[in-house]
Amino acid sequence: MNRVQALWKSSVGKKAVMAVSGLLLVAYLVTHVLANLLVFQGPEKINLYSRLLHGTGGALWVARLALLAAVVVHIVAAVQLTRRSQVARPVGYAGGRRPQVSTLASRSIRWGGVLILVFIVYHVLHFTVGIVHTSFVEGDPYHNVVAGFANLLVVAFYELALVAVGLHLYHGLWSSGRSLGVSQPSPRPLRRQLAVALSLIVWAGFTVIPLAVYAGVIR
To answer: Do the domain assignments include residue 97?
Structure first.
């Protein structure tokens, strides 16, 4: 227990926790986007998948609790690391901070993370609980998707949030590898092919669904 506490208290430990929890969330995003794309095959496929998923009983709630724990520790570690960084340098760089090998994803990681947190809460209330859905039907995800994306404002919010998800995923995949010692230092640090490919696939998979519904491709 002392070793676990010591690991958590260290900046290296917090970065490792962020990396592991982040990779768990990435695995979930990949499976989630693949499941969501079943909506293009009609109501039978995605509704059957939903019934099978809910038919697992307690296993579904175990998975949900594990995801919630991963989100919580990821956020807590991120906030604590940010505070440590601010304490270590309370005065900004003279003339401002000029990005060198940083990316838009790394520079937007904090506000993007806040937007993603708001999006997660809304998404759960929208498609899982149905509180903010206009005509939520329990056990009919196809109907919920079609009705849920009939509103242009909802579609616009999802698309904006998904940009933040894509950028966060891109930076997170690369930095997780560095934090866990998997990715070695490179003379071309901006070439991150795996992070680019996976983040683009996940982003595109999620993005196309609201647009397809609103355009009438899925109805």
So the answer is: no
Which residues are within 8 A (CB) of 14 and not within 5 positions of it... i.e. 6 or more apart?
8, 77, 80, 81
pTM value?
0.85
Alpha-carbon span 36 to 109, nearest angstrom? 26
Note the pLDDT tens digit of each residue in 173-208: 888 877 776 665 554 555 578 888 999 999 999 999
DSSP calls for 25-44: HHHHHHHHHHHHGGGGG-HH
Question: Residue 133 domain-assigned?
Answer: yes
The average pLDDT across 46-57 equals 92
Task: Find the domain containing 117 and state its range.
Answer: 2-89+102-215
CB contact set of 51 (below 8 Å; sequence gap of 6+): 139
Structural domain total, the chain: 1
Residue 96 lies inside a defined structural domain of this protein: no
| φ, ψ dihedrals at 90, nearest 5° | -70, -25
* pLDDT given for residue 121 in this prediction: 96
Angle at 179 between CA 61 and CA 171, to 5 degrees: 75
